[in-house]
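Ticket #4471: structure export looks truncated?
Reporter: QA, pipeline team
Priority: medium

Steps to reproduce: submit the single chain below to the structure queue and open the exported record.
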Amino acid sequence: MVFGETFLLWSKSLIINFSYLAIFAVSAIGTSTIFLPFPSYVIIILFAISMGMNPLAVGIMAGLGSAAGELTGYLVGMGGEKVIEEKKKKQLKIIKYFTRLFKKFGFPLVVVTALIPFPFDIIGIIAGMSGYEIKKFFIATAIGKIAKSLLIAYGLHIAIPYLENVMGVF
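Actual output as written to the record:
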């Protein structure tokens, strides 16, 4: 069995046993890996909605968990900034550029990139490297991730009965 499949089965078991708290925890774990190419939170939300859980609560818990997991990228960026600072390489110019960018557009940039399909780990790493305030990063990430999770949860809430009737799925 592949790791991803094992993770999803484990996630489903947790959601069955621990409900909304498990959605938060599994979403945090799923997004805490750097550059994981598979959006496991979509499957987690699918499990929850197909079990009849409240889409509002599912979306909020999945979004908050995803935002918490994204702090790993931010922390990696903070560590990377320290390494580059010590070496005084020309990458310092890049950090200065992103620091100015985050000072000017940081909050909306983080919200939008957390909402859209985008490799968000890059934003977390850059935010950490540029010294963007972690509290603002988390709040902006949470807004974007909750909005995305709510869209997915309500979309599945509407789609699942249709799929059950038309295709016999679920």
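Status: closed, not a bug. The export was complete when the record was re-opened. Leaving a note from the reviewer for reference: The two ends are 22 Å apart (CA to CA).
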